[in-house]
Design goal:
Blueprint (H helix, E strand, L loop, with lengths): L9 H25 L5 H6 L7 E6 L7 E4 L5 E4 L3 E4 L5 H15 L6 E5 L5 E7 L5 E5 L7 H7 L12 E7 L2 E7 L14 E4 L5 H10 L7 E8 L5 E6 L4 E2 H7 L12 E8 L2 E7 L1 H4 L9 E2 L4 E4 L5
Parallel strand pairs: 6-10, 11-17
Antiparallel strand pairs: 1-2, 1-5, 3-4, 6-7, 8-9, 8-10, 11-12, 13-16, 14-15, 14-17
Length: 310
Amino acid sequence: MKSDRSPGSGSFRRLWALVSWFWFSCFCSLVAQDGGITDASVNSDRTVREGDSIAVTVLGEGSISGSFKVGNDGKVNYPLLGRVHVSGRSIDQVAADIENLLEKDLIRDAVVSVTMSDRQVDSVFVFGAVRSQGSITFDPEEGITLGRAVARVGGTSEMANIASVKIQRAKDSDLNSIIANLNNQQELPLEDGDIVIVPSKPEIVAESVRASVAVAEEIQTGRVVVSGEVSREGIIEVPLQGGIDILEAIALSGGFTRLARPSKVKVRREVSEGVHETVTVNVDEMRKAESGSGFRVYAGDTIFVPESFF
């Protein structure tokens, strides 16, 4: 008989989140003191404005923690969430906003800390088939190139498709994409807030799928972003017509890691221009089916596999 104090109980999870938040807050206070911030209340009550830089730290999620510059539209370009409005909000309010957005769609019991950057730094994010994913800060006067950014995260892995590196860049209220080739575009300058995604090489199974469907012409494909607790985060290519089964998408990303929570996989999809919805998919149950899951992902979708807490 299981105890009502088991790790899976709701009360335990709430207590764990509170304890984590307490120690995390102590850590952030020590960091702030070490950096020479003498009046924490000034930082806490400070209203975020266009042109400011804010440092966002998500406990246990280093790949989506970093420094973000507020654009002229009052928004920051945040990994997985897209454009998030922060202007006119206090840093405590911004932290609560990001927590709510992450908990709504992606991460259970998110713990977020936000501070004002004490010096002007720019940052870019690098994900996918690289040695160490995450954010990179750099001096805005010196700038940074695509090649240097990839080198800063340890370079690409053996599975990297360096000919199709995707760069997501915010322009005003729009999010544009640039496709670059690392072979001959290493000196391509990056901008503050850019998100670099290095995709994996197409798998043999993906090639066989395309070969079986293509008849007399090359099949057109689109991209699905897979992140979180999979063996190879990054981009996979899917047919524009019909998409692929979510089980195949996970397999093309190397399968789940041992920390994955397959019962709560999130799929974010654009349902109309600028409007997205997020669906929670229980891949655990779907894997028991004899022939596929019946849930398909399509070009433009984003799959996020959360971490299991226990």
